[in-house]
Fold this protein.
Amino acid sequence: MPQVADIIIERKINLMGFKCGIVGLPNVGKSTLFNALTQTAAAQAANYPFCTIEPNVGDVAVPDARLQKLADIAGSREIIPTRLTFVDIAGLVRGASKGEGLGNQFLATIRECDAIAHVVRCFEDGDITHVEGKIDPLSDIETIETELMLADLESLEKRIPASEKRAKGGDKEAKEILDMMVRCLKLLQDGRPARFLAPDADQRKLFNSLGLLSSKPVLYVCNVEEASADAGNGFSQIVAKRAQEEGAVAVVVSAKIESEIAVLPEADQADYLEAVGLTEPGLNRVIRAGYDLLHLITYFTIGPKEARAWTIEKGTRAPQAAGVIHSDFEKGFIRAETVAYEDYIAFKGEAGAREAGKFRLEGKEYLVVDGDTLHFRFAN
């Protein structure tokens, strides 16, 4: 079975991070987790299906201890972390692909996301009903996965006839699209999501253009009871095994704990975490897992005015990294003045790094490394 790392396709990443759709069955803790992640009450959390009537969107800062350390050395007046977007999508049920519940409305929202955070209920609680009447994480996963695949099947079956006509007319691009559609259709008919197709580098852009729901990278978020928030439980272990087998990623969080942390003053959060046996909020784990899933890295721009973090895809060259700040930076790129994070810290800033021979000038072919501090020179 192909690894997700091998099939991550070219995606348009939000300039400030990425867009992750939170999906799952009703009453698995999606909206509770969303509220905690965004520290808002924008999404109503209630013990009945379809309490989320419209998709809720929230931006959240990406926690990165490196940014504060860099700012302290540079004396930066302002700290601006990179951000990512979470979209809380209503609970899907069996038949969502055919319009059951609020299915169609929210399946369309998933298409706009870069990845899927699939919240899976991994806790027992008689006071919180389960839409299927039992706690079975693998069955829950299959329900959501099936609905996404069925929606993709319907989409491809409708689109293939038109592509066949264009391909017969000698349209080269239409032939390539048709071939990709047929390959995806065969995979779906075999009961496997489109993300297992593993297109080669030349075909990734084409594959992405199909907009298939089941082509999205998946992050399984195992929502456990408070006592299992650190190491997980038997349910989460089952999900982790499945994630490993299919090349996905799984993390353990307690949405209840996260919601309690979110309303505490920042000064009190560390004490609370220590009291429940955690070293960091589950949000941090979700973000790191999401970054790994989408092959994202962070670089920094540091100065007396501000210390700022920027998100790019791993393998991004210096001009394109500059373009994340402003398109003019990419167009007129001359060079990047670069100091690795470890060197910036070790030698107390850019001046010290320069004296130690750790200050570098990099050109257009330079592949930016996670943690790089960069200053771009460009022609107007």
Notes: The radius of gyration is 23 Å. Confidence is low (pLDDT under 50) at residues 1-17, 40-53, 99-103. The chain has 15 helices and twelve strands. The CA atoms of residues 42 and 111 lie 22 Å apart.
